[in-house]
């Protein structure tokens, strides 16, 4: 083994050549600055201007929206006789308007939570099947169908949920309350004949967010380096053990990010929930009973008939939804960053 | 096809899980007998009709020009080849008389018996140094902290890495240098106590000093394991191996073949085939 090129000697060599080069460079600078000065070409300048302008425009628009919303919301909150955060009434006319978002926030979180509980495991399963189990042709077809599902407009899901799915789910509602009714959330007061409940909304939301989560996690799973999969297999891992050892840990940040994308849609979904849910302003945790409402659906239902104060109140509720989404995303960021040094990006 | 005649009559039991049973030293290393092996990618024959015997507790080096099927062939020895879609193998590979390609043999069990180190260091980036070494043990159902600690330390010592990492076992394996990562991968591979260790150009992504460390390690490991190493570097083959196999292909698109195999000293001083002499003298490849 030749040891003549040690790291030290290599460093020295670099330093030597560096010191030899620098005086020349200085001379060139003094004598004629042209060849060394970076030339700014017209195309670069135009592109810089365009991209900087786009960035600034975006910020200005965002700030404009924020200011408008906050001003409108503050106006309305000033006239509120109830507690905006803890009440769940919604009276925006008459002499003593009183409104609060407690019930709406509850309904939003519950329906989105149900959606995530159902959608995330199924979506991860679909993505794993497409990337690691299915034969290539099946995988391609399935991937295409998943993408197609993501493109279905939410109003179609709303119609389908109202006309087709919710009647079919009535039996499941009864079954759940019969056998799991001792768990508070599955308790059912009404022996009602409708399944237009938060539970049904959660299922419809799950179907809506599933393709988003599945599509993103599929891309993440495809990024898992073959070398890591082979490392696991060479240790004598079965396919599932390989997925557990190499694929899922590598994909975890991606799964979380994908879930956040899906959760954003579930929290903000408007028309499907507005169509399906038989809503009430009261907060309910009994997901098998009709009632409850979400922020977005409430806005859609009320906006047309609202007076000025009512609109301000709805805008304020919209801001609450915005803050809720920010909090959830921030929490996800924290979870991802906590294990940054173990992220697959260091591979 | 020789498969039918060489296969032992009674169906082989599944390979015992390494590291769990008490095995005597003799059982540790195994002779590998390959006969009439063809490896395909789809309909493309990549490696044709290879027969050789790999002796226990020796280092056998595979040398030859690029594309001659060395890597393909070494991957047939632990059934990694067939993981590529469309890839398949004909012929037999016997580990102390047990056909690795027998109908009742589970490829997962084969890979637990025949470990592998890859060209590029590939520690799991999401795991700590400790967890990387323990990964194979956990797959084998060893879960007790005390057992794991002991085997992890023994494996890291065995890979000459313990002193460098003992204070940072919980740091990610991806934070190590390339040479350290490769030794970590070797530690991971020997933690499950395989009987054979395959190395597919283990030094090609490393600097000369790290290469030297790995070569020293190979000299130590051959006391306990049967080692097969693919290398592009003829000097390396001459330094580390006891026996050398020279592979070549007749032309572009034609399958790779084994030209000759023999004691390293003899292959490098007095090879029987002219192509071997030409390759070693640097006249092609």
Characterise this structure:
The complex is a heterodimer of chains A (347) and B (285). Chain A has 347 residues and is an all-alpha fold. Chain A has eleven helices and two strands, in the order H-H-E-E-H-H-H-H-H-H-H-H-H. Chain A has a two-stranded antiparallel sheet. In chain A, strand 1 (90-91) and strand 2 form a beta hairpin. Chain A is globular and about 70 Å long. The two termini of chain A are 29 Å apart. Mean pLDDT of chain A is 85; it is low at 1-31. The longest helix of chain B has 14 residues, at 145-158. The model of chain B is unreliable at 1-27 (pLDDT under 50). Chain A binds chain B through residues 1-3, 5-7, 136, 225, 227-228, 230-238, 241, 245-246, 249-250, 252, 339, 341-347, and chain B through 78, 80, 83, 85, 108-109, 111-113, 115-116, 118, 120, 122-128, 135-136, 139-140, 171-172, 174-175, 185, 188-189, 192, 208-209, 211-212, 239.
Secondary structure layout:
The complex is a heterodimer of chains A (347) and B (285).
Chain A: H1 7-31, H2 42-78, E1 90-91, E2 98-99, H3 102-133, H4 136-150, H5 154-180, H6 198-222, H7 226-234, H8 239-268, H9 271-276, H10 295-302, H11 308-338
Antiparallel strand pairs in A: 1-2
Chain B: H1 3-6, E1 32-41, E2 44-54, E3 59-63, H2 70-76, E4 87-95, E5 98-99, H3 107-113, E6 114-117, H4 129-139, H5 145-158, H6 162-165, H7 178-191, E7 196-200, H8 208-221, E8 226-230, H9 234-240, E9 243-249, E10 256-263, H10 264-269, H11 274-280
Parallel strand pairs in B: 3-8, 3-9, 6-7, 7-8
Antiparallel strand pairs in B: 1-2, 1-4, 4-5, 9-10
Helix pairs in contact in B: 4-5, 4-7, 5-7, 7-8
Summarize the structure.
Chain A has 347 residues and is mainly alpha-helical. Chain A is 71% helix and 1% strand. The longest helix of chain A is centred in the first third of the chain and has 37 residues.
């Amino acid at each position: 083994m030749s040891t003549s090129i040690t790291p030290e000697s290599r460093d020295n060599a670099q330093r030597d050549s560096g010191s030899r080069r620098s005086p020349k460079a200085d001379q060139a600078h003094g004598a004629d600055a042209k060849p060394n000065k970076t030339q700014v070409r017209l195309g670069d300048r135009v592109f810089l201007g365009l991209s900087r302008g786009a960035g600034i425009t975006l910020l200005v628009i965002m700030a404009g929206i924020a200011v408008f919303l906050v001003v409108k919301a503050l106006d309305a909150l000033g006239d509120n006789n109830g507690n905006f955060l803890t009440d769940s009434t919604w009276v925006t006319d008459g002499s003593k308007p009183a409104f609060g978002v407690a019930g709406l926030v509850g309904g939003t979180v519950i329906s989105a939570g149900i959606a995530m509980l159902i959608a995330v495991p199924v979506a991860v399963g679909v993505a794993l099947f497409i990337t690691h189990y299915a034969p290539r042709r099946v995988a391609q077809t399935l991937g295409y169908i998943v993408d197609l599902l993501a493109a279905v407009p939410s109003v179609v899901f709303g119609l389908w949920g109202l006309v087709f799915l919710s009647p079919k789910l009535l039996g499941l509602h009864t079954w759940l309350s019969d056998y799991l009714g001792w768990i508070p959330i599955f308790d059912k007061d009404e022996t009602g004949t409708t399944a237009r409940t938060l539970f049904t909304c959660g299922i419809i939301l799950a179907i809506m967010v599933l393709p988003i989560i599945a599509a993103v996690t599929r891309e993440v799973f495809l990024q898992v380096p073959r070398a890591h999969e082979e490392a696991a297999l060479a240790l004598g891992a079965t396919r599932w053990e390989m997925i557990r050892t190499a694929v899922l840990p590598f994909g975890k940040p991606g799964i979380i990010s994908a879930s956040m994308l899906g959760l954003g849609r579930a929290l903000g979904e408007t028309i499907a929930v507005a169509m399906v849910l038989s809503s009430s302003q009261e907060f309910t945790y009994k997901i098998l009973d009709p009632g409850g409402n979400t922020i977005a659906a409430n806005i859609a239902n009320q906006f047309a008939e609202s007076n000025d104060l009512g609109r301000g109140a709805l805008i304020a509720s919209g801001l609450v939804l915005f803050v809720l989404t920010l909090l959830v995303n921030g929490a996800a960021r924290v979870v991802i960053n906590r294990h940054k040094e173990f992220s697959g990006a260091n591979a | 096809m020789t498969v039918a005649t060489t296969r032992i009559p009674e169906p082989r039991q599944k390979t015992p899980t390494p590291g769990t049973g008490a095995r005597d030293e003799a059982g540790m290393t195994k002779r590998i007998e390959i006969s009439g092996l063809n490896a395909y990618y789809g309909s493309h024959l990549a490696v044709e009709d290879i027969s050789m015997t790999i002796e226990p507790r020796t280092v056998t080096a595979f040398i030859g020009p690029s594309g001659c099927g060395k890597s393909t062939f070494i991957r047939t020895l632990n059934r990694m080849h067939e993981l590529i879609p469309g890839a398949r193998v004909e012929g037999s590979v016997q580990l102390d008389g047990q056909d690795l390609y027998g109908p009742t043999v589970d490829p997962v069990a084969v890979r637990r018996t025949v470990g592998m180190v890859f060209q590029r260091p590939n520690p799991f980036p999401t795991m700590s140094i400790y967890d990387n070494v323990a990964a194979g043990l956990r797959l084998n159902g060893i879960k007790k902290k005390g057992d794991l600690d002991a085997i992890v330390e023994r494996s890291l010592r065995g890979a000459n890495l313990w002193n460098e990492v003992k204070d940072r076992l919980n740091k990610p394996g991806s934070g190590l240098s390339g040479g350290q990562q490769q030794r970590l991968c070797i530690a991971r591979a020997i933690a499950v106590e395989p009987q054979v260790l395959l190395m597919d150009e283990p030094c090609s992504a490393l600097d000369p000093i790290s290469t030297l460390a790995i070569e020293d390690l190979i000299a130590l490991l051959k006391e306990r394991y049967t080692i097969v190493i693919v290398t592009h570097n003829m000097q390396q083959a001459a330094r580390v191996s006891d026996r050398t196999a020279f592979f070549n292909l007749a032309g572009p698109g034609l399958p790779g073949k084994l030209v000759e195999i023999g004691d390293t000293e003899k292959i490098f001083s007095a090879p029987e085939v002219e192509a071997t002499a030409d390759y070693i003298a640097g006249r092609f490849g």
